[in-house]
Specification:
Number of strands of chain B: 2
Number of strands of chain A: 2
Mean pLDDT of chain A: 92
Mean pLDDT of chain B: 91
Helix content of chain B: over 70%
Radius of gyration of chain B: 19 Å
Distance between the termini of chain A: 39 Å
Number of helices of chain A: 11
CATH topology of chain A: ABC transporter involved in vitamin B12 uptake, BtuC
Oligomer: heterodimer
Largest sheet of chain B: 2 strands, antiparallel
Strand content of chain A: under 5%
CATH class of chain A: Mainly Alpha
Low-confidence stretches of chain B: none
Largest sheet of chain A: 2 strands, antiparallel
Chain lengths: 287, 298
């Protein structure tokens, strides 16, 4: 029993590290533009397909294809936001959120148009699990966790060390004050959306590596991604990491009591619990 | 062909009832509900289970679907009423997914992904081939009565209070309105209507399965309501018929454009649903039939 718990906890932490990546994307965009962007799901799929093309068609290793997933999803994120959502800035956050759902559907259907709806597999070889006494660890999962950690570390360095990163944190903290200091809010919004959707793209590819790629690869995960961001505190990047780990852990541990198909409901319960007990989230600043 | 048109019109009426339900919640009370398909599924399953497993009469199934979904909706509201708009969107979306997951997994009750078949169709034995026309007329009568009823609700003090809460809940509370009670009532009414729509669908198609109740349906209803005019009951109905007309008429393009597969056509159709919603939100957010301006009381 204890061995099973330890195994599930390990799986949960690894899944959580991967889940944290798109959650960071969502929370980062929210921090700067202040609306919940549902099209994160479609951008996860965009990243997954970009990675798939580079990996399965052009033969790049998965770790290199991830960079392509980041760039493609980031560029498409900026472009679609500019065309679709920017005209709505200034309207209520809810209107823009609904518009982002429409955008999400459009992007997913473009992917479905060109790639079809059936799942596709990356060119990753099937490898035997590593076994440490009673613990089983999949090499692909370990690789995914490493990719996630590298991406998060790079983001941390960017946010802490560069002037642009500092400016972005300033906008997230107090848009009016940042504006009066001469920080261009539009530029910061574009940057946050580019990097945020890029992270969604990486997250989508990591989910795809673990399972397979189809246009709904992001949408199926979106409840968990939202849960991670909300539990951690919408708008807080460290919160998204903590929230991702918490939701990943809870989803795996739920297997002790419930069939695997109910895993998707765990995120929903997590959202309800945190909004009832601590609406601003674990590390959030404001409700 | 005429049979196809009748089926299309029936779906239009069912969509219109769903759009009316969303209009009570979102249009009148200003509470977004991205989980409307979850309430629709609730109603369909309640009526189907009662009439198939317990052999209850269909009228009882419809009534139970409305009551059961209204109670569910009221409970959901109690859990979410203090939430901000964007959280409300996330939680209601999650609610619909959870309903679908439960329907897929509690096989002892819902028969899982096999679905429930053999749901009785009212007076089918007596009507025979006239069933489809009769059912369409029945749905249209229900729709028309709901339209008239909801128009009365909209003009009533209750409707005014909902609009006040929509515009500014704090001011409404300050004016002595019990905001929570109004919100719960609005969600319960909307829930009852969505449940009724679900039950009407179940007894029409005679077969339901969890995969019918996907989030795409919610988006279609949002498109219907925004296109028709958020806050306007007639707009909601008009928008629903337009959306069904668009979805169904484009089915025939598969033979017309030779190089396009059925799946690509389905993708294109979804693309235009999204594009339509986005374009309306940007260029004509009040829809085809804008909400009537409130009459000032002398």
């Amino acid at each position: 029993m204890l061995e099973k718990v330890v195994q599930l906890a390990l799986n949960g932490l690894m899944a959580g590290a991967v889940l944290a990546v798109p959650a960071i994307g969502l929370t980062m965009i929210y921090a700067v533009v202040r609306f919940v962007n549902f099209s994160v799901a479609a951008h996860m799929a965009v990243g997954a397909y970009a990675g798939y093309v580079l990996n399965a068609w052009l033969g790049l290793p998965a770790s290199a294809a991830v960079a392509g997933a980041f760039v493609t999803a980031g560029i498409i994120g900026i472009a679609t936001d500019h065309l679709g959502l920017r005209p709505l800035r200034g309207k209520s956050a809810l209107t823009i959120a609904i518009a982002s759902i429409a955008l999400n559907l459009m992007i997913e259907s473009v992917l479905r148009f060109f790639f079809g709806g059936s799942p596709r597999d990356y060119a990753s070889p099937l490898r035997r699990d590593w076994v440490f006494s009673f613990l089983h660890v999949g090499p692909q999962e370990v690789e995914n966790v490493i990719i996630a950690l590298v991406a998060m570390t790079l983001l941390l360095l960017f946010m802490v060390l560069t002037i642009t990163g500092k400016a972005m944190r300033a906008v997230a903290d107090n848009p009016l004050l940042a504006d009066s200091k001469g920080i261009d809010p539009d530029r910061m919004a574009r940057l946050a959306i580019g990097v945020g959707m890029g992270f969604a793209g990486i997250g989508g590819m990591l989910v795809g590596l673990d399972t397979s790629v189809d246009p709904l690869v992001g949408f199926r995960a979106i409840l968990s991604v939202f849960a991670a961001a909300v539990v951690g505190g919408l708008g807080s990047i460290p919160g998204a990491v903590v929230g991702g780990l918490a939701i990943g852990l809870a989803e795996e541990l739920s297997l002790l009591a419930f069939p695997a198909t109910y895993k998707a409901a765990v995120g929903f319960l997590g959202i309800l619990l945190i909004l009832t007990l601590r609406p601003r989230g674990l590390l959030g600043v404001r409700a | 062909m005429i049979n196809y048109l009748i089926a299309m019109a029936t779906f239009g009426a069912i969509y219109a009832i769903l759009a009316l339900a969303l209009n009570v919640m979102w249009g009148m009370a200003g509470m977004v509900n991205l989980g409307i398909v979850g309430f629709y599924a609730c109603g369909a399953y309640i009526s189907a289970l009662l009439t198939v497993n317990a052999h209850a009469p269909i009228a009882l199934g419809l009534a139970a679907a409305m009551a059961g979904t209204a109670v569910t909706a009221a409970f959901v509201t109690l859990g979410i009423t203090r939430l901000r708009d964007d959280y409300l969107a996330i939680v209601t979306l999650g609610f619909a997914e959870v309903v679908r997951i439960v329907a897929e997994n509690e096989i002892w009750l819902t028969r899982g992904t096999d679905g429930i078949s053999g749901i009785p169709q009212p007076l089918k034995a007596m009507l025979g081939s006239d069933f489809n026309v009769a059912y369409l007329i029945f749905c249209l009568v229900v729709l028309l009565s709901l339209l008239l009823l909801l128009e009365r609700v909209r003009r009533s003090p209750f409707g005014r209070a909902l609009r006040a809460i929509r515009e500014d809940a704090q001011v409404a509370a300050f004016a002595g309105k019990d905001v929570l009670k109004f919100k719960v009532k609005a969600f319960a009414i909307g829930g009852a209507l969505a449940g009724l729509a679900g039950a009407l669908y179940a007894h029409y198609s005679s077969y339901i399965v969890p995969e019918i109740f996907v989030p795409l349906l919610t988006i279609n209803i949002f498109l219907a309501l925004t296109a028709g005019g958020v806050g306007n009951n007639f707009g909601a109905a008009l928008g629903a018929f337009l959306v069904v007309f668009f979805l169904e008429s484009t089915r025939f393009l598969v033979g017309v454009i030779p190089w396009i597969t059925a799946e690509q056509l389905a993708a294109l159709r979804e693309f235009f649903v999204g594009l339509g919603l986005l374009v309306i939100l940007v260029f004509r957010p009040r829809g085809l039939l804008p909400e009537p301006r409130p009459q000032l009381v002398d």
